[in-house]
Structures are given as C-alpha cells and as structure tokens.
TrEMBL record:
Superkingdom of the source species: Bacteria
Gene Ontology CC: large ribosomal subunit
UniProt cross-references to InterPro entries, sorted A to Z: Ribosom_uL1_bac-type, Ribosomal_uL1, Ribosomal_uL1-like, Ribosomal_uL1/biogenesis, Ribosomal_uL1_3-a/b-sand, Ribosomal_uL1_CS
Function: Binds directly to 23S rRNA. The L1 stalk is quite mobile in the ribosome, and is involved in E site tRNA release.
Keyword rRNA-binding: yes
GO biological process: regulation of translation; translation
Natural source organism: Candidatus Chromulinivorax destructor
Signal peptide span: none
Keyword DNA damage: no
Assembly and interaction partners: Part of the 50S ribosomal subunit.
Family per similarity comment: Belongs to the universal ribosomal protein uL1 family.
Protein name: Large ribosomal subunit protein uL1
Assigned keywords, A-Z: Repressor, Ribonucleoprotein, Ribosomal protein, RNA-binding, rRNA-binding, Translation regulation, tRNA-binding
C-alpha cells in the first residue's frame, strides 16, 4: 500500500468534497494544489467506452498541442541521402542508418522519438525487441514512418505527442506543465480532447468519453465536467 506524504494528504482533503469542475477551473485548481519542488506535468486520465481486449477498438493517435508539452524531446531519424539532410535541417538530434542501428543495438536509447523513411523499416526490424517495449519503434500509423521526415520532426519539436489506450481502456496524456498559464493549458486540453473524440473506433458503441480526471505529476486527481468540455 502506497503511503503518501503530508502535503499529498492535505491536498486530498481539499478536493475530497469537490463537485466536477469545468476544465478551466480544474486546471486552476491543479495548479494551486501543486506542491512539488519541480515543474510538474499536468496529466489527464480519460476513461473510454471501449472494449480494450478487441483489436478493432484500439484508440491511438497523435496531436500537435498549441503550446507544446513543455518537454524538450530528443529525436532520432533513420534515413539516408536527401531525407537525412532534410531531418537534420528540421532539428533532428541524431540522424543515421546502419551506424545508428548498430549504436542502438548496443543498448543506447537516449531519445524520446524515432522516425524512419520507408526504406529503413526492414533494416531497423532488428531493433524491434529493444524499441518495441519502449514504444519507440517507428510506426506508419502514427506518421513516424514517412518519406517526409522533415515535417514529422518539426511537429515533434513543436510538441506533437501520441496517445494510446491501455489494457483498462484508459488514455493517459500530459497537456503541459504547472508553469504554463491557465489559458495555455486550457487550449492544449481542448485540442487534445477534440482529437481524442475524433479517434472513436467505429466498433465502439455508446458513450465514448466516460470520465476525465486531471492531476499534476505528484498531485491528487480532480474530476472534470464532461458537459463543459468544448
């Protein structure tokens, strides 16, 4: 059983009797209750009306947040020739082909996203056991396997982030940092929620977004009124 500190318990008491809040008020409350000494992320957990055991109800996608996530991301690109040059100009942190594959095969995974051109998909297959479990393997459905590597690198640097439901049918997502203005977090939240709503699988019936909870990294959860999410 997890034993929380005094500050966490005090924050929990302050929200124990709260009604569901509008997303703007929830953001303000989360910011006011933040007590960590570092710039916490503001995270949301969304309970979806899907059967997570069925492949045709998987929810996944990507979204460019208007104000980014507040995180500095490191991007590797598997590419050659003009595509490699394009990736470097767009701001990729590491660009390579066989040399990059060899480096990663030896255990180096000091990056947040991996992008590849289509011709590099087969060669990087040897890295599947390393990158797959970490969610770092380039994926065509997410746009990280593409010939236009410059565009996806630029989007990732701007704050594009990906989401996917877990085994319980939940989506966990960060909309920014406690240091962001309420208005910035509000715009990020609305942008994400609209993207998530549009990703509803055809096989999912009934209410898609059932519950939304917001918290800071170390903070307590606050329920968001779904009727006011727009």
């Amino acid at each position: 059983m997890v034993k929380h500190g005094k500050k966490h318990r005090n924050a929990l008491q302050l929200v124990s009797n709260l009604d569901l809040l509008s997303h703007k008020d929830a953001i303000a409350k989360v910011k006011s209750l933040s007590f960590a000494k570092f710039d916490e992320s503001i995270d949301i957990d969304v309970n979806l009306g899907i059967d997570a055991t069925k492949g045709d109800q998987v929810v996944r996608g990507g979204v460019v947040l208007p104000h980014g996530t507040g995180k500095k991301v490191r991007i590797v690109v598997f590419a050659k020739g003009d595509a490699a040059t394009q990736a470097e100009k767009a701001g990729a942190d590491f660009v390579g082909a066989e040399d990059l594959i060899e480096k990663i095969s030896q255990g180096w995974v000091d990056f947040d996203f991996a992008v590849a051109t289509p011709d590099m998909v087969a060669p990087i297959g040897v890295l599947a056991r390393i990158l797959g479990p970490k969610g770092l393997l380039p994926n065509k459905k997410l746009g990280t396997v593409t010939q236009n590597v410059g565009a996806i690198v630029a989007d990732l640097k701007k704050g594009k982030a990906f989401f996917k439901n877990d085994k319980q049918g939940l989506v966990h997502f960060s909309i920014g940092k406690v240091s962001f203005d309420v208005s910035q977090l509000q715009e990020n939240f609305v942008t994400f929620m609209k993207t998530l709503a549009a990703s509803k699988p055809a096989a999912s019936k009934g209410k898609f977004i059932r519950k939304v909870t917001m918290s800071s990294s170390m903070g307590v959860g606050i329920g968001v009124n779904l009727e006011q999410v727009s």
